[in-house]
Amino acid sequence: MAQTYNPQLGREHSYPYEHREEERDYHWGMVINTNRCINCNTCSFACKSTWTSGEGEEYMWWMNVETEPYGGYPMGWDMRLLDDLEADQTIFDAADNGEKVHGYIAEKQAWEYPALGDDQVHGEYPEGEVVESDLENDEYHDIWQFYLPRLCNHCKNPACLAACPRKAIYKREEDGIVLLDQERCRGYRRCVKACPYHKPMYNPETGVTEKPVGCYPRIEEGNVPRCVSSCIGKTRLHGNINRGPDAGPAGGKSSAASGRSPINYLVHSDEKVALPLYPQFGTQPQVFYMPPYHVPPEFLTQMFTPNTEVKENEWPGDTYEESVRIVQERARNPSHEVLGILQLFGATTRLIETYNVKENRVKGWDRNGEKVVDVPIEEPMEVREGEQWTNQ
Ligand code: F3S
User: Fold this and answer.
1) Which of 80, 117, 250, 252 would staple 354 via disulfide (CB 3.0–4.6 Å)?
2) Is there a contact between 148 and 34 (Cβ–Cβ < 8 Å)?
3) If residue 239 lies in a helix (H) or strand (E), which one and from where to where?
């Protein structure tokens, strides 16, 4: 099998196709700030009503929100696969004889409860006592949970694409969105088995598989996906993950900002604050998460880092766990640049290609160089004169 360099792991591993995903001018990407997610599932229903409300699609939640550590749709999807992999082994390295990817098809029962484990916390409440946290002495809470929105990652090494013997799955040239050609599909379900995130789903009514489409019709018109525009918590920012610091002004217009996209800054700058979900699978997922800052880093390390002994250099700390602590702290006390970018989350339904943080304002431009957002970073505070109400 061909080898590919995986920057999320800092090493090469097997992948059936050679590619140059890092060199694409444009690649679909998303950053989700888990600290803002309230599990309202507005995103899930916006996605379902747009894409999967037909016959045979009843169980399909292309977008779902899980409560960590106990939630999961399908049930137990992550732990089951992690248990199969040896240290430093991707799902491609672990492929069984005659297969290109190691995976499994979740049983029917695993799909029966999309919200199993919702709001269940880690840790036990002391009986008969009020829960008090002693955060001055303990850095993290003993009792915790957080919400993890999950969707197709439009991976740079898609497992679904690698597994399909019909070559029915492809990456779009213009934006890297991974699509499934239903005319070519014969329902072999190798893609269903291969995707470690379990997002291609078989439709028993039509006999072919369906997979998330990255809201491509909206992207083509310069709009963000529906899960992004509908999010009431303003948890997400969508855009071009491949637009790095050397890029020229958007649309070639001198009036527009040049340089990296806001999500590229959050993921790839020296001030990295967003991490991929289970990069150890090896698929190079392109949805990145700002991890919750109240959760113990040991848990987050196995979920958002390669979680190996040897650490690749681009991570900020000496170990992966230390790196997670640094990223959590950056999210808790953001720099002015990150604070500025955080104001772009949910600020417009237009896709932001470039941005600029200057003094107290952050501005964004689309791919044509048109300004689409201009907002203050900190709202002015007005203190009223006169007597204040007091309960003393
Ligand atoms: Fe291929 Fe998946 Fe269809 S493996 S044939 S796209 S069910």
Assistant:
1) 250
2) yes
3) strand 236-240
Q: Is the CB of 101 under 6 A from ligand 1?
A: no
SS3 151: coil
- Compute the distance from residue 200 Cα to the ligand 1 centre, in Å: 9
Answer whether 164 contacts ligand 1 (Cβ < 6 A): yes
Centroid of ligand 1 to alpha carbon of 170 (angstroms): 11
301, 303, 338: which is closest to 322 by C-alpha?
301
What is the model's pLDDT at position 363?
98
Task: Transcribe 278-335 into DSSP letters.
Answer: -GGGSS---EEEE--TTS-HHHHHHHHS---SSPPTTSSSSSHHHHHHHHHHHHHS--
Complex confidence, ipTM = 0.91
Q: Are 59 and 48 in contact (CB under 8 A)?
A: no
Q: Ligand 1 pocket, 372 CB below 6 A?
A: no
Q: Residues 6-17: pLDDT tens digits?
A: 999 999 999 999
Share of the chain above pLDDT 90, in %: 83
Q: How far is the CA of 184 from the centre of ligand 1 (A)?
A: 8
Check pLDDT > 90 for residue 356.
yes
Rg (CA), the chain: 22
Provide the residue ranges of all domains of the chain, joining segments of one domain with +.
Answer: 219-376
